[in-house]
Write a structure and sequence with these properties.
mainly beta; 2 helices; 11 strands
Length: 190
C-alpha cells in the first residue's frame, strides 16, 4: 500500500455532489443501463482504465433500454465518487442521439467518438478517461449515469456553449425535465 493512498484513505468525494443528485437531473428511473464488460458493482477491466496504470483508456460497452417518447438527447456522465477531493471527478460527459441504443468499446474517444456521440469536456479533458486511482487508496466507484433529456443541451439557458463548458457549470444548467434515467457502477482498485 502506498503512503499517499494510506494518508488519503478516509478522504472521498462521496455521492452528495454527483450529477445524479442535482435537482435539475432528477427524474424517473425508467431506463436500464448495462455493460457486457462489468455488472453493476462489478470490477472494471484494466483495458478500460487509464494509460498511466497500464490500461488503454478505452470506454467500455454500454447499452440501455429505449428512451421515453419525447427524448431529444441522452446525456451520459461518468464520475469517480471516491476521488480524494471535495466533489467527484468527472471522467466523461457525452451527448448521445436518442436513436443510438448502445456504445461499443471506444465510442467515447475524444478524437473519434462513435456515430451519434458528441463528447464534451470532463474534469480530465475531452472524451473518456478511465480509472486511475491512487495506489493503496482502496476501491473507487465509477458511476455511469444516463439521462433522457426533453430539451437538447444546446437549447438550454446556459451562457457557455456545451462544447466549451466545464462539467460543474454545464450539469446544473441542464433544462428539466429529465424523462428517464439510469446508472451503472463499475469498481476499480490499485
Amino acid at each position: 500500500m502506498s503512503l499517499l493512498g494510506r494518508l488519503l484513505n478516509n478522504r472521498r468525494a462521496g455521492e452528495t455532489h454527483m450529477a445524479w443528485n442535482l435537482p435539475n437531473l432528477h427524474g424517473p428511473e425508467t431506463l436500464t443501463l448495462t455493460s457486457r464488460h462489468f455488472g453493476d458493482g462489478g470490477t472494471m477491466q484494466l483495458e478500460h482504465c487509464a494509460k498511466h496504470i497500464g490500461g488503454q483508456d478505452r470506454s467500455p460497452h454500454l447499452a440501455w433500454s429505449p428512451p421515453p417518447t419525447g427524448t431529444a438527447q441522452l446525456l451520459l456522465v461518468v464520475e469517480d465518487l471516491d476521488v480524494p477531493m471535495g466533489k467527484p471527478a468527472v471522467h466523461c460527459v457525452a451527448l448521445i442521439d436518442p436513436a443510438v441504443g448502445q456504445l461499443e468499446p471506444g465510442d467515447l474517444a475524444g478524437k473519434q467518438p462513435g456515430q451519434g456521440v458528441r463528447v464534451l469536456r470532463s474534469t480530465l479533458g475531452r472524451g473518456y478517461h478511465g480509472p486511475g486511482p491512487i495506489k493503496g487508496h482502496g476501491p473507487h466507484r465509477y458511476v455511469f449515469q444516463l439521462f433522457a433529456l426533453e430539451t437538447p443541451l444546446d437549447a438550454s439557458s446556459a451562457t457557455t456553449p456545451p462544447d466549451r463548458a466545464r462539467p460543474r457549470t454545464l450539469l446544473p444548467a441542464v433544462t428539466p425535465p429529465v424523462l428517464g434515467r439510469a446508472r451503472l457502477t463499475g469498481v476499480f482498485e490499485r
